[in-house]
Design goal:
mainly beta, binds zinc ion, 8 strands, 151 residues, 5-stranded antiparallel beta sheet
Protein backbone atom coordinates (compact mmCIF):
# COMPACT_ATOMS: atom_id res chain seq x y z
CA UNK A 1 0.00 0.00 0.00
CA UNK A 2 1.07 3.52 -0.64
CA UNK A 3 -0.21 7.00 0.01
CA UNK A 4 0.72 9.76 -2.40
CA UNK A 5 0.49 13.50 -1.87
CA UNK A 6 -2.13 15.33 -3.91
CA UNK A 7 -0.84 16.69 -7.19
CA UNK A 8 1.78 14.06 -7.97
CA UNK A 9 2.85 14.14 -11.62
CA UNK A 10 1.89 10.95 -13.43
CA UNK A 11 -0.81 10.09 -10.90
CA UNK A 12 -4.51 10.61 -11.63
CA UNK A 13 -6.01 12.19 -8.48
CA UNK A 14 -7.95 9.91 -6.15
CA UNK A 15 -11.34 11.49 -6.63
CA UNK A 16 -13.03 8.46 -5.09
CA UNK A 17 -12.88 8.62 -1.32
CA UNK A 18 -15.62 6.07 -0.67
CA UNK A 19 -16.50 2.95 -2.61
CA UNK A 20 -20.30 3.28 -2.34
CA UNK A 21 -20.25 -0.49 -2.70
CA UNK A 22 -23.39 -2.51 -3.11
CA UNK A 23 -23.79 -6.28 -2.68
CA UNK A 24 -22.27 -6.92 -6.10
CA UNK A 25 -19.10 -4.85 -5.57
CA UNK A 26 -18.47 -5.04 -1.80
CA UNK A 27 -16.19 -8.13 -2.02
CA UNK A 28 -13.94 -6.23 -4.47
CA UNK A 29 -13.64 -3.16 -2.23
CA UNK A 30 -13.22 -5.23 0.94
CA UNK A 31 -10.33 -7.12 -0.69
CA UNK A 32 -8.88 -3.85 -2.04
CA UNK A 33 -8.74 -2.45 1.48
CA UNK A 34 -6.58 -5.47 2.35
CA UNK A 35 -4.36 -5.02 -0.72
CA UNK A 36 -5.80 -8.00 -2.59
CA UNK A 37 -7.28 -8.12 -6.11
CA UNK A 38 -10.39 -10.26 -6.58
CA UNK A 39 -12.75 -10.67 -9.53
CA UNK A 40 -15.96 -12.52 -10.28
CA UNK A 41 -15.81 -15.62 -12.45
CA UNK A 42 -18.76 -17.38 -14.09
CA UNK A 43 -19.25 -20.78 -12.46
CA UNK A 44 -20.67 -22.15 -15.72
CA UNK A 45 -18.09 -21.16 -18.36
CA UNK A 46 -15.19 -19.54 -16.46
CA UNK A 47 -15.53 -16.09 -18.03
CA UNK A 48 -14.51 -13.27 -15.70
CA UNK A 49 -16.85 -10.36 -15.08
CA UNK A 50 -14.88 -7.34 -13.94
CA UNK A 51 -16.62 -5.20 -12.87
CA UNK A 52 -19.31 -7.62 -11.68
CA UNK A 53 -22.42 -7.87 -13.83
CA UNK A 54 -25.65 -9.76 -13.16
CA UNK A 55 -25.28 -12.03 -16.20
CA UNK A 56 -22.33 -13.62 -17.96
CA UNK A 57 -21.84 -11.94 -21.34
CA UNK A 58 -20.63 -15.26 -22.74
CA UNK A 59 -23.27 -17.78 -21.53
CA UNK A 60 -25.88 -15.61 -19.71
CA UNK A 61 -25.39 -17.68 -16.54
CA UNK A 62 -26.02 -15.79 -13.28
CA UNK A 63 -23.87 -17.62 -10.73
CA UNK A 64 -20.38 -16.39 -9.90
CA UNK A 65 -17.50 -17.14 -7.62
CA UNK A 66 -14.98 -14.61 -6.30
CA UNK A 67 -11.44 -15.49 -7.31
CA UNK A 68 -8.24 -13.93 -5.97
CA UNK A 69 -5.84 -12.86 -8.72
CA UNK A 70 -2.08 -12.38 -8.41
CA UNK A 71 -2.27 -8.64 -9.14
CA UNK A 72 0.12 -8.76 -12.07
CA UNK A 73 -0.59 -8.36 -15.75
CA UNK A 74 0.37 -7.06 -19.17
CA UNK A 75 -0.36 -3.72 -20.79
CA UNK A 76 -2.94 -4.54 -23.48
CA UNK A 77 -3.29 -0.92 -24.62
CA UNK A 78 -2.58 2.52 -23.21
CA UNK A 79 -2.63 6.25 -23.80
CA UNK A 80 -0.62 9.12 -22.40
CA UNK A 81 -2.70 12.09 -21.32
CA UNK A 82 -0.72 15.28 -21.84
CA UNK A 83 -3.53 17.84 -21.89
CA UNK A 84 -5.45 18.26 -18.60
CA UNK A 85 -9.17 17.93 -19.21
CA UNK A 86 -9.91 19.82 -15.99
CA UNK A 87 -7.88 22.19 -13.78
CA UNK A 88 -7.51 19.50 -11.10
CA UNK A 89 -5.47 17.42 -13.57
CA UNK A 90 -2.85 20.14 -14.18
CA UNK A 91 -0.31 18.68 -11.73
CA UNK A 92 -0.94 15.10 -12.94
CA UNK A 93 -0.09 15.49 -16.63
CA UNK A 94 1.49 13.79 -18.36
CA UNK A 95 0.11 10.51 -17.01
CA UNK A 96 -0.41 7.07 -18.52
CA UNK A 97 -3.72 5.21 -18.49
CA UNK A 98 -3.84 1.66 -19.71
CA UNK A 99 -5.93 -1.43 -20.19
CA UNK A 100 -4.26 -4.20 -18.19
CA UNK A 101 -4.83 -7.86 -19.06
CA UNK A 102 -4.72 -9.55 -15.67
CA UNK A 103 -2.57 -12.61 -15.08
CA UNK A 104 -4.68 -15.65 -14.34
CA UNK A 105 -7.45 -14.53 -16.70
CA UNK A 106 -5.95 -14.60 -20.20
CA UNK A 107 -8.69 -15.19 -22.73
CA UNK A 108 -11.32 -15.10 -19.99
CA UNK A 109 -12.35 -11.49 -20.10
CA UNK A 110 -10.70 -9.71 -17.17
CA UNK A 111 -9.01 -6.46 -18.01
CA UNK A 112 -8.80 -3.33 -15.89
CA UNK A 113 -8.49 0.27 -16.97
CA UNK A 114 -6.00 1.87 -14.63
CA UNK A 115 -3.50 4.63 -14.17
CA UNK A 116 0.05 3.34 -14.79
CA UNK A 117 2.33 5.01 -12.27
CA UNK A 118 6.02 5.16 -11.39
CA UNK A 119 6.90 5.07 -15.08
CA UNK A 120 8.48 7.23 -17.76
CA UNK A 121 5.34 7.80 -19.85
CA UNK A 122 7.46 8.02 -23.02
CA UNK A 123 8.82 4.51 -22.38
CA UNK A 124 5.48 2.69 -21.82
CA UNK A 125 4.86 -0.09 -24.36
CA UNK A 126 2.09 -2.55 -25.12
CA UNK A 127 3.19 -5.88 -23.68
CA UNK A 128 5.04 -4.41 -20.70
CA UNK A 129 4.62 -6.40 -17.48
CA UNK A 130 3.00 -4.51 -14.61
CA UNK A 131 1.96 -5.13 -11.03
CA UNK A 132 -0.79 -3.65 -8.96
CA UNK A 133 -0.09 -1.02 -6.33
CA UNK A 134 -2.88 -0.11 -3.96
CA UNK A 135 -3.19 3.52 -3.01
CA UNK A 136 -4.60 4.01 0.45
CA UNK A 137 -7.26 6.73 0.23
CA UNK A 138 -8.77 6.50 3.71
CA UNK A 139 -9.44 3.76 6.28
CA UNK A 140 -11.17 0.94 4.47
CA UNK A 141 -10.69 2.41 0.99
CA UNK A 142 -7.84 1.74 -1.45
CA UNK A 143 -7.75 2.24 -5.20
CA UNK A 144 -5.73 0.18 -7.67
CA UNK A 145 -3.01 1.46 -9.96
CA UNK A 146 -0.35 -0.46 -11.87
CA UNK A 147 3.39 0.08 -12.11
CA UNK A 148 6.11 -1.62 -14.15
CA UNK A 149 7.46 -4.85 -12.73
CA UNK A 150 11.03 -4.38 -11.68
CA UNK A 151 13.03 -7.52 -11.29
ZN1 LIG B 1 -20.49 -17.84 -18.41
Amino acid sequence: MTTRPEGTQGVFPSIMTESFADDSTKPFWDAAAEGRLVATKCTNCGTFRLPPKPFCFNCQHRDIEWVELPGTGTIYSFTVVRHPLSPMLMPAVPYAAGIIELDGTQGAGARMICNIVDVDVDAVKIGDKVEIVWEHVNPGMSVPRFRPVTS
